[in-house]
Amino acid sequence: MTTRAEFLAAVRDRLREPIPENHLRPLTEAGLGEPIRYAVELSDPEARFLEAATGVGAEVVGRPEDDLRAILERVRDDVRPARAVVTDDPECKGVAPILASLGVEVLAAGGPSDVATADLGVTGALGGVALTGSLVMDSGRARTRLASLLPEVHLALLARDRIAATPGDFLRELSRWFPDGLPSNIVFITGPSRSADIELEITVGVHGPRKVLVALR
Amino acid sequence: MSSEFLTLSTSLRERTAAQVSDSRLRSNLARATDAFADRKAAAYAQFADPEEVRAKARAAKGEVLRRLDQILERLADRLEAVGAQVHWARTDEEARDHVRRIVQTHSAHRIVKSKSMLSEEIALNEALEEIGSEVTETDLGEWIIQLAREAPSHIIVPAIHKDRTQVRDTLQRVAEGDLSDVPGELAAFARRELRQRFLQADLGISGVNFAVAESGTLVLVTNEGNGRLATSVPPVHVALLGMERVVETWEQLDLLLALLPRAATGQPITTYVSAITGARRPKELDGPRELHVVVVDNGRSSILGTEFTEMLACIRCGACLNVCPVYRQTGGHGYGWVYPGPMGAVLTPLLVESKGAAEVPNASSLCGACWQACPVGIPLQDMLLALRRRASEEARLGERAAWGAWAAAWSRPWAYRASLRLASMAARMFNPSKVPGPPQRWALGREVPTPARHSFRDQWRKGSR
Fold first, then answer.
1. How far is B256 from chain A (nearest CA, A)?
2. For position B5, what pLDDT does the model report?
3. Residue B21: beta bridge partners?
4. Parent domain of A163
């Protein structure tokens, strides 16, 4: 079996001489410089987030001024879930008892076969991305990565002051978002699960949620 | 390779003949590739200056390639620090052995896979089936192809060559009731079927779109969610990493992450972008308990340091396929191996040593549309030309002599004129498509032009008298 040292030595060996240049199209050493400049209005991250998220098929079911109970009641009436799974994200505080009082059985997050029986997954979001309408999930806070994945409907609660303008703004500040180091799983979620593998026709809910609901807090 | 579509032992002409005359295939391809081009333009319009982003991404890849050994070393250190096990594979055989050993250690009978072109490259499924494992491709397009026992014909949309009724007929093989041909209903059927397999799986296999060396993170870019499932539900996750798919920093990743989905499908971002740093942590309730990363060379280091080095900057978006006039007529299977289109026509002869592979760069028009479409600006047409030159240097003596004579003749005015007169006479005496041997082979599939009886030069001289 090849060892790390052998593998890397073979690579190093190939790099002893400078790489030949294509004189017509030279490979410059230009540094990274400034972040990507976008031709999209980003001065109001919250407004752009809502526009982009709706554009990719997520539904906005609550604004910061809305009462949590009223939001969950609307979701219950719309989705009619029998069973919900709720994560440990701080934004989810208070969700489980309200859902229970609304007649929804609430599961504690657990193994895949449990979570798979829920028809609603309620999670917090560590942050959002305005440009793309993405939600950022952190497996460390939530303690699970399946609540946003296995149920047919995913409801995410996102604090309005945690929306980065662009993916790059988020990625450049990872140490601020994750002061204790990166969790095992970060996922940017942008709208419901989709496939275009049959005649490029967009179909939603292929493997992940069919519906993504967002409530701003 | 198990698939009848993947074989470089037949000639390029044989492989493409059937496809070019399949009008259904050609209309499926034209519809899909046109749609991609439109969506891509809209997604690029979000950049204030798309050319600036491309130039920076190309430069970033260049920086990584120049220091690839150091960056891979840093990646390996970080991966091990976060508890991943790193395996090194110089060859495809070694890569298969690593995965087989992990599978056998865990007695993993049921395996779910998320789409990975590298796994196609090393023919992993066959190797795992040989030791008795049941491998399920879970990307909808890949599953269709697996059931049809075909090879992917596009690196992003593997079943691009099939229309809805062909997909319905394929899925019907594993369905109990009758399926409709509505894409949404077919996708729902796939969800039900595959969900059970995810929940029962012993091990999940994925590719890696990008690895970030500074934190030891694997980044996966998917739309369906099968990539998340395959890397979250089973107790063991094996990730296959092509050794060039690494970046050093998250800043570099930002550039490539912005370009990949825009160039591939015209999306500003895919539905899911997963960043995996190690296996499940002690307080987490789910996620794999073991993470294995198999770093694969399989010929890549032999490209490094050559005039083809920049091919290792390829991020596998498929944009060059969608714009290629040859791919759009033939589809992916004619290229004979796992990577089709212009990127495949460059990569195949560099990774596979055979006469069949050396012939693949001829399946191009050198128009440069691929280079224009490439988000990281790989000069594909320059490489195709260089590979053709290389193949011609290894060609038979007779062929080399013929090309040499042509080059010599057309470098001298008198010989050029003589050759035209000769061609004009010859064309009137016999038709190359009727002359057995090389002339006939050359004429096949070409419209042989009829040289004018009197050349332009002759006419000019007469007219000016």
1. 11
2. 47
3. none
4. 45-216
